[in-house]
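re: the backbone from monday

yeah here it is again, tokenized this time
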């Protein structure tokens, strides 16, 4: 919990203690009905003042400041960094803490700097990708009581809330801006290419556990980043809020420098990045009842759209380079095209829903139940790259030339009996290994598809939001994996 949130909660809690009799007099709703926790969302691109009203469902401002308050400024600076594995743009937006309303706006229109970055980055399923969010917050500005007057509704709006709640909502919204966070933020996508399927989980553990140390040249993770950078297998994508005239990094050293300079940039050229919202019902002179707000499916609409779009992009990438993938063992170009058609239908439906949501000022934002499905059923139908697991490497790359060379040696005249006996023993061992790899191939291929397309995504999504529909239980995950279609006919020994 950051300092501003803690101070605001203490302020609200203490005020509610001495105002309890007044709340009872006004018949305030129960704590179960009032979201006492402040809600943090992105700072609007066109700016906003403290105390301004806010519509939570649409993520837009009201035209009026309806409360009396004083202003408190905390001079301290706080710093934190978050590094997490991401599998698509949906999980990236969650990691960057993009609000649901901005995600939906970004489906059909341009959004904030943060959403524009998330939409513009390039995801490659053949890479292990990590989202980095470094935040430096200057002293927060927040609403506060004056010496003699608590934060409260202005009298004219208190009366309006009592006599005409719907008009109050139109003028004031359901919440007010209780705090503004200023400073600087850095968002980056770090991708490691040419990582074998079996190595992805270990890389996640190393990178996600590094914290700020990832930007220190002395750590093992930073060393791995340098190796990848030298081999041209490290890709850095970046955006920043705050700062003035600082260079845009394109590699590891540039990113390290940008993060190290972030506190200075936040001090010299700050930008507001987030606001904290509090419901009017928490105020001491609220006249009773709750403000009715329309329930929306903003997060679902945005998440499903990005997930299905990402998989469609992956299918197009596979279709452009089919020779790089294992096809013909349950997955074909024709089957991929059928999957892409289903994804296209869901994407177009979600785009229409997002457009209707935006056009109605977020009053009509219900997702079609046919669109509110996890993407695992589609993921299970995708292939993996060639040589991405051990058995495929043995059968396709390692053993055939070795067996062929051994056969040529046996046909070579003039060798000693011991020489031929050794070559035959080696050949027989290679053939046995080849046959064993073929026997293991179906299960190995299913396991590789599961790791790449199912388990990795489940892990990332459960790590982001354990309560989401996408965080499926192990039993469901196992059922999806067992249903992966594998068709493999052993080939003759070369």
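seq for it, each position gets an aa:
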């Amino acid at each position: 919990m950051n300092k501003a949130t803690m101070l605001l909660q203490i302020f609200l809690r203490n005020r509610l203690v001495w105002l309890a009799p007044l709340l009872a007099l006004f018949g305030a709703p129960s704590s179960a009905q009032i979201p006492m926790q402040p809600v943090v969302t992105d700072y609007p691109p066109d700016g906003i003042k403290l105390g301004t009203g806010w519509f939570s469902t649409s993520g837009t401002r009201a035209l009026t400041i309806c409360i009396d308050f004083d202003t408190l400024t905390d001079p301290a600076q706080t710093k934190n960094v978050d590094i997490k594995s991401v599998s698509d743009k949906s999980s990236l937006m969650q990691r960057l803490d993009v609000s649901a309303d901005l995600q939906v706006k970004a489906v059909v229109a341009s959004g904030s700097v943060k959403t524009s970055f998330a939409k513009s980055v390039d995801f490659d399923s053949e890479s292990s990708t990590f989202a980095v969010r470094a935040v430096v917050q200057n002293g927060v500005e927040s609403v506060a009581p004056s010496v003699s007057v608590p934060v409260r509704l202005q009298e004219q709006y208190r009366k309006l809330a009592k006599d005409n709640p719907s008009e109050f909502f139109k003028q004031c919204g359901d919440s007010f801006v209780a705090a503004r966070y200023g400073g600087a933020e850095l968002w980056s996508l770090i991708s490691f290419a040419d990582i074998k399927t079996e190595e992805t989980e270990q890389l996640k553990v190393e990178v996600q556990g590094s914290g700020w140390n990832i930007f220190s040249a002395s750590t093992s993770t930073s060393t791995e980043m340098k190796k990848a950078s030298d081999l041209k297998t490290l890709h850095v994508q970046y955006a920043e809020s705050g700062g003035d005239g600082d260079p845009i990094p394109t590699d590891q050293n540039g990113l390290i420098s940008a993060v190290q300079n972030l506190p200075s940039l936040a001090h010299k050229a700050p930008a507001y990045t987030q606001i904290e919202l509090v419901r009017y019902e928490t105020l001491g002179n609220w006249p009773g009842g709750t403000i009715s707000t329309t329930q929306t499916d903003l997060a679902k609409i945005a998440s499903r759209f990005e997930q299905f779009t990402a998989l469609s992009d992956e299918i197009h990438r596979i279709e452009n380079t089919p020779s790089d993938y294992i096809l013909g063992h349950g997955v074909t170009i024709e089957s991929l095209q059928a999957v892409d058609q289903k994804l296209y239908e869901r994407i177009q439906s979600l785009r229409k829903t997002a457009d209707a949501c935006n056009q109605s000022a977020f009053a009509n934002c219900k997702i079609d139940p046919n669109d509110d499905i996890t993407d695992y059923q589609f993921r299970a139908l995708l292939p993996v790259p060639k040589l991405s697991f051990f058995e495929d490497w043995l059968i396709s790359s390692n053993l055939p030339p070795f067996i062929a060379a051994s056969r040529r040696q046996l046909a070579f005249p003039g060798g000693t009996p011991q020489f031929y006996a050794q070559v035959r023993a080696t050949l027989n061992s290679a053939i046995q290994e080849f046959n064993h790899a073929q026997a293991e191939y179906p299960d190995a291929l299913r396991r590789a598809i599961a790791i790449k397309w199912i388990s990795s995504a489940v892990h990332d999504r459960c790590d982001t939001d354990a309560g989401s529909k996408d965080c499926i239980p192990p039993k469901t995950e196992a059922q999806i994996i067992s249903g992966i279609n594998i068709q493999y006919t052993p080939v003759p020994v070369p």
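The mean pLDDT is 81. Residues 3-88+123-282 form one domain.
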